[in-house]
Amino acid sequence: MPYKSTKGGVCAPKGFVASTAACGIKSSKAKRADLALLWSEEPCVSAGVFTTNRVKAAPVKVTQAHLRHRELRAIVANSGNANACTGVKGIEDARAMADGVAKPLGLTRREVGICSTGVIGLPLPMERIAPGLATLAGDLSRRNGGAVADAILTSDTCRKEIAVTVDLGGHSYRIGACAKGAGMICPSMATMLCFVTTDANITKDCLQRSLLDVTEASFNRICIDGDMSTNDTVLVLANGAAGGKRITRGSKECRRFRDALEYVLLKLAKSIVRDGERVTKFVTLDVKGAGTYLDAKKVAEAVAKSALVKSSWNGNDPNWGRIIHAVGYSRARIREELIDISYDGKPACTGGELADTPIKDLRAVAAKEEFKVTINLHLGKAEYTLYTSDISPEYIDFNRSEYAYWKNR
Amino acid sequence: MPYKSTKGGVCAPKGFVASTAACGIKSSKAKRADLALLWSEEPCVSAGVFTTNRVKAAPVKVTQAHLRHRELRAIVANSGNANACTGVKGIEDARAMADGVAKPLGLTRREVGICSTGVIGLPLPMERIAPGLATLAGDLSRRNGGAVADAILTSDTCRKEIAVTVDLGGHSYRIGACAKGAGMICPSMATMLCFVTTDANITKDCLQRSLLDVTEASFNRICIDGDMSTNDTVLVLANGAAGGKRITRGSKECRRFRDALEYVLLKLAKSIVRDGERVTKFVTLDVKGAGTYLDAKKVAEAVAKSALVKSSWNGNDPNWGRIIHAVGYSRARIREELIDISYDGKPACTGGELADTPIKDLRAVAAKEEFKVTINLHLGKAEYTLYTSDISPEYIDFNRSEYAYWKNR
Q: How far apart are CA A260 and CA A217, in angstroms?
């Protein structure tokens, strides 16, 4: 491990405090926390990346507008309802969530980022959210990093948080983060949220650039086809509380910050795949030897989203025929007779034909919980890596109905 | 029904005869026919459309070459093995299949089309196929149209054939066809085969043009993303045995032939969706009001291939949130606040928000075996229709392993 792990999640960096509340949005019975507030005691620089879906949830639209005008210093989030496709009322509700925490904290509304995740198309139950909002500012504590990580979960089965210390010789700063995974195996298809905090003393320029870079190499690598949900959001707040010389773009320290951020976000991205709904396999898909980067990406995405490939993995079946078939329709430039496919380095297909590895050896790899599939096109030097999973009958069964939510109407 | 139905499938048109054999390719135990021959007693004009997958099975490559040089007069097909990703031996085997029937029929090899369907990546068991091939020419009969339709099936649960009579006032011709569906819900992802025969007296030009046109409006409308398997093939043989004035391109009769062919192929295409593996719903997806045809198609394909949308249909859940979410990432031009979505005409979403139809009414539609989802973008006049299905836990379970095949190694 290249970085020293530390405790506290998003509250590990100096000056960040958090609180949560249970409002009955996720479920009216169980009193699970479903509202969270994260606040920096110091002013921050901030950056965000958002869904590219052309249908954007109200909190995404509002937060994007806030970020254009001001630096965020707080984030308020709810789970259980996405506040998406909710029209003018949705915008008003998102603003009301920001107002609800801004006033007691002495912030303007535009210093608050808003995130929602859950079912699409139903208005937020503001009558249940308002009482929770009123308690958040009073409950802020450094001990609540984990509570925030829990409050944003929906169908996730485990908390996803991490915090590391980055040493700069003599002085150090911390990066903390939490995330929620997707209703779907691929977070691109459901809501993925990630909040990152740091006490590094960094310029907005360096922060924003690093975030864009790193998102491409982490969360976008678990996006099956680059599609995102209506709500996907990654927000970073940097309050500079660790002091030290300011990290500026292009410096060695900026590269070091970028690398540490990549480490943190890639860990979270992989944990989202591992906790995909009813997932039983974690598959690293390495495409090599492509003519172009885009071709490598096309191949990886076609294979990773093929229901037939994913079904065979679920059955411990090292079926390379389905893989090469997906390679063929990926629209990447390929030559069938050059393609090699291997499972954990064991050839399954050589030069577009059956390799002579005994099938039992390949099945032994495919039976593991974690393995790597390498596809070499032997056409060039471009590469692409994706982290993906199988698809199980239980996944479909789990997603057959959101009727439990709809009943609330 | 605009055309008079008739019996006999591909042998309904005059001058077509067929035979089948059981070679133990599909299964070494059950003696199901898995080899078929279709032959026209008269010379033919012929046309074909093939997979656009860049990984093409050997029989596709060989048949494409044959069609470039000669008119096909016979088709030989096997099920149980796709003869794909089989290198030079695959090409030799495909040619050997053609040779095996060409000699006894007095044809050249290039007058024979070859089709294979089944598992990818294993060589054809020629030692088992050769004895079957030797019997085919001797068993030809007009009564074997249905037997051919059965011999090409793999995971299909029912025969797919049709024959119609087209009256031209005073004289008539027939069009017969059979097809096999996909290992997958969407035939684009597995092998789809279709053989069409007609005794119409038609020019190659009119035949080829009609086939291209009609494929776009039938089999390509059940293609989820325009991707095709390594083996997809539609072949048409027209022997002119019905006599009458030759049908030439651009004539009224050519349009009439095209319409009749569309009727036949659309019936078969829909029957492939209905017989998709473990499918419980047949959904007609109508996209209206798109700015361009391509946008309408993008929207339809994004929705039709969303595992979340398909899962909700499986659960009788009229979940429009998942539909609008797929519309948003389709990359089509949209305006969220203009989008209407309805189930059998009942509004589920109006202007991008929840419509006021009672949820029980929408659930009643989604609970039916067959319903229509209409998405109106209200941006223009372009439209697109796709025929699609749900996805079930049983589908994934069914596709978890092709190990039964691999055991044969």
A: 13
